[in-house]
Specification:
About 0% of the residues lie in helices and about 25% in strands. The protein has one helix and ten strands; from the N terminus they run H-E-E-E-E-E-E-E-E-E-E.
């Protein structure tokens, strides 16, 4: 495994309270995809439901480079699954829960070159290795409280058009992009802050 990523902790933050009013979504969150056409499923086990604490354009850590993405509030040790089939690029472990300077994470590259980031995993909660092929729905890790979580254990999930993410090779040239999910209630405009989403059965 690679050394624990240092810079990806900037993906989230805040104190777990309700975020500030989001910016005008018509101006900043307009890369919309109908739910039924999404290539992605929720990054947790079918039948589970989790609340979104931060969402697209919600302010705090979800602005600028990290404008798009979701924080799912989860107890430490909750199973995290692949949102789309692909190949593991980075699988970084070694940080203890409560460590605010480092985070455990997984990145998975898909066939179109996009890359999903799964961050804030618990110690020994990275359950895949670089180069491993995974299918949508496969277990890839366990959620945790590493990095800049604001003290609220959660899973950060974001999608990027390439693998150049902060703290990893080619740092910082691949900002987050819009993503929604086909195996839950309609979310054409993306998931909403403060709402819990049930992961429904899906076909590959």
């Amino acid at each position: 495994m690679l050394p624990v990523c240092l810079s990806l902790v900037a993906a989230c933050g805040g104190d777990g309270s309700a975020p500030a009013a989001p910016p005008d979504k018509a101006a900043s969150c307009d890369d919309l995809v109908p739910t039924a056409q999404s290539l992605y499923v929720l990054p947790y086990t079918v039948g589970d439901s989790f609340r979104v604490n931060q969402a697209n354009c919600s302010g705090f850590g979800h602005s600028g480079f990290w404008l798009y993405g979701y924080d799912f509030v989860m107890d430490i040790g909750t199973v995290v699954t692949a949102a789309r089939s692909g190949t593991v690029v980075h699988a970084n472990d070694g940080a203890q829960d409560g460590d605010r300077d480092r985070t455990n994470l997984v990145t998975i590259e898909h066939e179109d070159g996009t890359v999903a980031l799964y961050s804030h995993l618990t110690l020994n909660g990275v359950l895949v290795t670089a180069g491993q092929t995974v299918n949508a729905g496969d277990t890839i890790g366990l959620s945790g409280d590493t990095g800049n979580t604001g003290g609220l254990p959660h899973l950060h999930f974001s999608l990027h058009p390439c693998s150049d993410l902060p703290g990893l090779p080619g740092a910082g040239s691949c900002p987050s992009i819009f993503v929604n999910f086909r195996n839950t209630s309609d979310n054409d405009n993306g998931l909403e802050t403060g709402v819990s989403y049930l992961a429904l059965p899906f076909e590959y």
